Amino acid sequence: MDAMARLLITRREAVLAGAAALSASALPAPAAALGQMDTAIRNVFGEATIRAGKVTLDLPPLVENGNTVPMTVSVESPMTKDNYVKAIHVFNDKNPQPNVISLKLSPRAGKAVIATRIRLAGTQKLTAIAEMSDGTLWSGTEEVVVTLAACLEDLP
Amino acid sequence: MTARALINVPRKAKRGDVIEIKTLISHVMESGFRTGTNGKTIPRDIITSFACTYNGEEIFATQFYPAVAANPFVTFYTIATDNGTLAFTWIGDNGFEVTQEAKIVVE
Amino acid sequence: MVATLMLGASASARAQGVRPYTVVGDAIPASLTGAPGDPERGLKIVTNRQVGLCLLCHSGPYPEERFQGTMAPTLAGAGTRWSEGQLRLRMVDAARISPETIMPPYYRVDGLTRVAPGFRGKTILTAEQIEDVVAYLKTLKN
Amino acid sequence: MEKRLRLVAPALAIVLAAIASLAFAEIPLSQRRSGYEQMSREVKAMQDDDTSNPASLSVLDGEALWTRREGSAQKSCADCHHDAETSMRGVSARYPAFDAAKRRPLDIEQRINLCRTEKQQATPLPFESRDLLALTAYLGKQSRGMPIAVISDDDTKPFIEAGRQIYARRQGQLNLSCQNCHDDNAGQKLAGVELPQGHPTGYPLYRLEWQSLGSLQRRLRNCLFGMRAEPYAYGADEYVDLELFLMWRARGMTVETPAVRP
């Protein structure tokens, strides 16, 4: 029944949507065509080439609510002194803000795998971009279907 | 009550082993995008960074955004190199700072 | 079948703006508003999960709508299965046909228990909305 | 004649209630399923591993509170009950339990607050406060893995029955009962969500939606809100009776506290 409770709350959802609209309208004009995730990615990496591959985003394809979604990012890399993952950035397309998490790694990690839990305001795509020690950029994208948008019950 | 953190580091490892480290900390991660019952935006209150050092050297560092869920949970890996101490530090809005340590024996 | 005539809304309900209606057998033959509804508005109500709530329990012919309920029969073909008047009574107060139904009474304010303050004395849908939904459901032919 | 009718009416009501409860489609004991079984692999893993289960943080809080001296008596829980791992083993699995002085069942939250007011001479902890949730999580953890074992006897039966009546009563603008969803339609989908049977095996529990720990009463409040019904006040007899009925309905099922649910 709580699913119904969540669906019945309209005011906060409206506010959340408003906040998203506001942040989108603050973006420079050419960015509007790109969407918030691609814009954010370009803001970090400029015009550098980003190739698809080596990065795997592991997320449940369908979640009951977006407030706490488990996410694992893994990057194919030997993680040696000469060949390792320097950084990983994760972006989203529909939250009020496009960034999710950024992290720095070193060869001492042994394995370029990290797991965390994130918030998703509705069904959307996520992209993780790995920056390698040789300067190349690799990306992986995944879509998560959120059965209901992340919103609140009435406050207790 | 102060923030509470849970860390899972193997007590013992063989030199060169890749070990899994799990961390969990209590924090609301108030996104700054929510509205309170009074109609006003609830101010942002999040952890903004988390880092781990191994015998003083930084081996892992993250930046968190409001999209990280409440009670942040992070799992990562590192190579067991020496006996010693892993120190975990979370820093956030409103002067939030928590450091916790774990010992490891490397054979 | 013998037609039973019943006066729908009680005096107290009428005072709160619920219009009287007449049940004939298992139907309310006459429009609650005296005018036909608008099927296009009806479709919007049915697929709006905050207004009609229909898709929480029912599924329907909406391939683009994810997550439709399975607690109640599909709405597809409703206009073939039921007459306009039968649809209207099923919307207004389905418990008159089957007391055990989980279908909420969309146009009834009395005989309810512990209604939350914000909803007290209010029907789930207005008479106009009921007519819109009935007009829309009538278009759902097999 | 009129007088006789008046005498007969209550008896008739009882007979009708008995018929109603016979018609009541109870889930056979062998077919009961915890909400855990409907969860995804990821969420199950979150509950199963202590470092991964966010409710563990509250269990640690509760452990610290157990030994904290409170109130004008300056007594801690441990001063009377000693090591919770032995003294509190199986206790939560038996709650709500009958209190002879109050002549009605109390849930574990009320039991803790009775200790606070009477033994520690401290103020009661508010429902859903961090400390009360932490203590109930810590106590619940001491029963993890044990069967739910609320007592059904002459003292508690009337309250179990009262809880059952609330469970079966249509409420709110949507005119639904708990039973409509959690017995008659368990396993069906309410929009995208598979309806659970509604067994309170893991409270207090961490709901991913709440992003925090919450009590069974908070969960019941959610359902009432969804039915557009007026919630009861926290601590109301109706909630405790309902909790008792639900625990009795889940008798023999395994305590999962502190559980994780979507």
Provide a concise account of the structure shown:
The complex is a heterotetramer of chains A (156), B (107), C (142) and D (262). Chain A has 156 residues and is an alpha+beta fold. Chain A has three helices and nine strands; from the N terminus they run αααβββββββββ.
- Please give the order of strands in the largest beta sheet of chain D: 6-5-7
Question: What is the end-to-end distance of chain A?
Answer: 17 Å
CATH topology of chain D: Cytochrome Bc1 Complex, Chain D, domain 2
CATH architecture of chain A: Sandwich
Annotation keywords:
heterotetramer, B: 107 residues, mainly beta, Immunoglobulin-like, D: 262 residues, mainly alpha, Cytochrome Bc1 Complex, Chain D, domain 2, disordered N terminus
Structure overview:
The complex is a heterotetramer of chains A (156), B (107), C (142) and D (262). Chain A has 156 residues and is of the alpha+beta class. Chain A has three helices and nine strands. In chain A, strand 5 (85-92) and strand 6 form a beta hairpin. Chain B has strands at 5-8, 12-13, 18-25, 47-54, 57-64, 73-79, 84-92, 97-106. Chain C has 142 residues and is mainly α. Chain C has one domain (5-138): Orthogonal Bundle (Cytochrome Bc1 Complex, Chain D, domain 2). Chains in contact: A-B, A-C, A-D, B-D, C-D. Chains A and C meet through helix 1 of A and loops of C.
Which helices and strands appear, and what pairs or packs with what?
The complex is a heterotetramer of chains A (156), B (107), C (142) and D (262).
Chain B lengths: L4 E4 L3 E2 L4 E8 L21 E8 L2 E8 L8 E7 L4 E9 L4 E10 L1
Parallel strand pairs in B: 2-8
Antiparallel strand pairs in B: 1-3, 3-6, 4-5, 4-7, 7-8
Chain C lengths: L4 E3 L3 H5 L6 E3 L14 H9 L6 H4 L20 H4 L2 H10 L33 H12 L4
Antiparallel strand pairs in C: 1-2
Helix pairs in contact in C: 2-6, 5-6
Chain D lengths: L1 H22 L17 H8 L6 H12 L10 H5 L2 H4 L9 E3 L4 E3 L1 H13 L9 H12 L15 H12 L9 H5 L6 E2 L2 E2 L10 E3 L4 E3 L1 H11 L10 H13 L10 E2 L1
Parallel strand pairs in D: 5-7
Antiparallel strand pairs in D: 1-2, 3-4, 5-6
